[in-house]
Amino acid sequence: MPTWERWCLQWGYMSSDTETLENFTEQEYKYGFTVDIEADELPAGLNEEIIRALSAKKDEPEFMTEWRLRAYRKWLEMESPEWAFIEHEPIDYQALKYYSAPKQKPQLESLDQVDPKLLETYEKLGIPLEEQKRLAGVAVDAVFDSVSIATTYKEELSKAGVIFCSISEAVKEHPELVKKYLGSVVPYTDNYFATLNSAVFSDGTFVYVPKGVKCPLELSTYFRINAQNTGQFERTLIIADEGSSVSYLEGCTAPMRDENQLHAAVVELVALKDAQIKYSTIQNWYPGDKDGKGGIYNFVTKRGMAEENAKISWTQVETGSAITWKYPSCILKGDNSVGEFYSVAITNNCQQADTGTKMVHIGKNTKSTIISKGISAGVAQNSYRGLVKVLRGAENARNFSQCDSMLMGDKCGAHTFPYIEVDNPTAQVEHEATTSKIGEDQLFYCNQRGISTEDAIGMIVHGFCKEVLNELPMEFALEARQLLAISLEGSVG
Amino acid sequence: MSTEARVAEKSSEQEVRWYDTEFEVLSGKAEDRVEKLLHAHRAESYRRFIEGGIPTSKNEEWKYTDIRELETRSLRLAAENGLSQVDEDTLVTTSLSARRGESAPLDGAILLHTIDGYLSDGLTKIQEELPEGIELASLRLSQDGLQRAFVEELVGEYFGKGKTEENDPIVDLQTALFSDVLCLRVKKGAQIDQPILLEHVSTGLEEDTVTLPRVLCVVEEGASCTVIERFRSLSSAPGCTLSVTECFVKDDGNLNHYQLGEEGEEHLRISRISAHQGKRAQAKMHSYSFGGRLVRNEVQPTLAGEEGFAGMYGISVLHNQQHVDNHTVLDHAVPHCESDERYKGIYDGNSRGVFCGTIIVRPDAQKTNAIQNNAAILLSDRASIRTKPQLKIWADDVKCTHGATVGQLDENQLFYLRSRGIGRRAAQGLLLRAFAGEVTQEVGIPGLRTYLEERIVEKLSL
Hints:
By secondary structure, chain A is an alpha/beta fold. Chain A is built from 13 helices and 24 strands. The radius of gyration of chain A is 22 Å and the shape is globular. Chain A starts with a helix and ends in a 5-residue tail after the last helix. Classes of the chains: A alpha/beta, B alpha/beta.
C-alpha cells in the first residue's frame, strides 16, 4: 500500500470500520522482518585484535587505527552510566559482533547494480530508492547494516562542491577533513557509549558543505539494522563551512528480533561562521513486543558546535527502540549563535526513553530554544533530561524551554529533569513544564461532532506535537504523522 | 568498582572520623526505655551512614552542594556547658518575640531556646504557662514520670517515621548523634493562636562544634498551630548545625512551619523538615535564608491523605560567598491533593543559589494538582544559580506544572521608576520587594511578614 494511502487510512480520511481501537493497540511492528543476505562478519567479541582487524578490513590509514585504539583503551577504564531513568539487563559487549557488511560488489554507480534483495527490502519499508530519487529530489545514502550500498545524486552534489559520502570513504579520500574534525565536537573520551563508538564505529555519513554553498538537496540516510547480533555503531560527521547551509534527514527502521540490539551512534555537527545545519531524525526501530521482549537499545551521542552567527537545529521524532538514551546538544561557542531542539518522544508498552538536550552558552548574545513533547502510554517511562548552561562570558544569553508531557493510561510515567546553571547575570532563562492527559471534555466535544474517539485522539495528539512536527521537512512530516498514529492511537480507551 | 569493594576500601583506610568517636561516646549512654528505643534508631542510622559516608557531588542529590568538609574537618559535638554560660534573659531580649520598641515581630509567642542543640532550662517555666491543648517536653529535661511517659509515647509512635522513601546520609548522621529532642503535640481540635517560636542558638564558644537539634511535632486531628524555627549564632566562629524536624499533621490538621536562617556567615547548616499529612490536612512550610556560609533547607512533605494541601514557600537573599540550597521533595501519595511551591532567590556578590525541587506523583494519585515555581534574580556578575526542578509522574489524570526563570531586574521597569524621580537604589528596592512579594504574602503573621520584608531590604542594603 503506498505511503499516502496508509496515512489517509490512519487519519480517517478514508474511513475504515474494521480498524478498531484494539487493532491499533495491538499493532505489531510493521517493519519487522529480516532479509536473508550473506554477510561478511568478524567474530563476536571486543579486543584490540578485533579493532585492528576492523580497521584493516576498512582499509583505513594509520591515524584512524590509532585513534580507535586510544578510544578502546579509554573505554576499558570507563563505567557504564547509571544515572538515566532507564532499566535494562547489563549488556555483554563480548557477545556482540562489531563488523558485519553485506557482500558487496566493488563499485556501484546506478541502482541496477544493487543487490535486488536489498532493493526489495526498501520496497517493503516503503522507501523505494527510485521513487525517492524521482519524487522528492532527495539524495539517499542508504546504509544497510554497516556499509553504504548506494549513493544517489552524488554527482549533482559534487557539482555544488558538496561532499556527501560514507565516512569510510571520507577517511580514505578526505583524510585532512576527517583528521581535523572527527572527535572535535564529541571527543573519543566523551562518554561510555561515544568512546565505544569511537573504537568500533562501522560506518556512517560524512558531509562537507564548502564556503558559502547552500546545499541544493535535502540529504538523507536510512539506517537499518539487519544481521543478527550486530551492534550498529554509526558515526556521522557534518561540516558546514563558513556561510553555508545544509539540511540533513535521518530515518530508521529495523527488523523484528528477540535479542536486544545495541546501537551506539555518534553524530557530530560543525557549523562554522554564519553556517546553518538542520538535522532531523525519525527513529522507529523495533521497540520490543508488548511484554518488552527484544527491541533496540539506542544510546546515542549527538552534539553540534556552532561558531559565530551559526545556527544548529535538531528535530527528532522518537517512536521506536526499547531504550532511547539520547541528548542532542548544542555548544553555542560563537557570538550570536543559535541552538534549537524540537523533540517528540513517544513511548508505548514497555518502552523507556530518557531524552533531552544540552544547550551550552559560551558566546555573547547566544540564543537557544527547547521544545520537547513527551507522550507516554502503556507501562512506558518517558523522561526529559536537559541542561541549559550559561557560562560567565555569555552576555545576554537567552533560553526558552518548554517540556510538555502527556500521559495515556494510568500505568505509565512521565518525568522531567531539567538542569539550569547560570553564571552570568544578564542571562534570561525560562523553563516551563506541564503534564496532562487528554481531557474527557475534549473527547466529548469531538464525539458529539461525529468524530470517533480514535480520530479525536489522533487530532489532539497531533495538535500537541504540532510545534515540533512543523519543524520537520515535508517528506518527514508525513512519515512522522504516520508514526504517531501507529505508536499511539488507541492507547486510550 | 562495585559498592562492596568501595565500602571495603573505605573501611580498610582505618581512618577514624569525628563522628565515629562521638558515636562511640553516645553508645554507652542508653539508660531507660526511651533512651534504649532511641539508641536502636541511632545504631541503625549509624550503620547506614557509615556504608556511604558523607555524600560527594557524584551523589545526584548533592550535585551542587559540596559538604565534604563534614568529613575532613576536625569537628566535635557541642558540649552541654553552653547552657550554663549563656544568659537566657539576654537571649530573650534578642529573640523575635521580645519587644523592640512598640511591637515585636512575634509578640506573645511561646518562646523556647535550644542552646547548641540542647533545650534550655527556660522550658520548665514555659511548661507551667502553656495554653490548653499543647504538650511540650524535651528528652533531656523530662525526668519526672508524666513528662517522660509523654516523650516515650511520642518517640515510640513517631520518631524516624517522617522520612521519605530514600535514606539520606545527613539525616542518618543526625539521627545517630542528635543531642536532644523537643517533643510537641497539639491535641485534637485545639486551635493554638500563639505562635511557637523555637530559637536555635549556636553559642560558638568553641570553633568547629556541631549542634544537632531535633524536633518531633504532632498536630492531632482538627488541631492547628504555627511553629517558627529560627537559627542564629552568637559569635562568628565557624560551626555546623544539622537539624531534623519531623512533623505529623493528622486529618483536618493545620500546620504553619517557618524556618528562618539568620546564622553567622561562617556557619554551615543542613536542615530537614518533613511533614506527613493526613486527610484534608494542610501544611505550609516557609524557608527564609539570609545567613550562613553554606546552607541547605530540605523540605519534604508527604501528602498521605486525600484532599490534603502542601504549600512550600521560600526566599534566599544572599551576598558574598554564601551558598544556599533549597531542596524539596513533594510526595503526592494519594489522589485529590493539591500543592503549591514557590521559591525565589536574589543573589548578589559571589553567592550561589541552588534550587532542587522534586514532585513525585504516585501511581494512584489521580486528580493531583501540583504547581511549582522557581525564580531567581542575579544582581552581580559573579553570582550564579543552579536549578533543577523535577517531575516524576506515574498517574495520568493529573495537572502538574513547573516553571523556572533566571533573569535580572527589568531595565524598562527601573527606567520607568527613575523617570518619575525615584532613585536607582530605591527603585531596585521596590522591584525586589515586589519580586519577593509573591512569597512573603503567604506569611500569615503580619508582624513576621513585615520583619521578613525588612530583612530582605536590609540584607541587600537598599
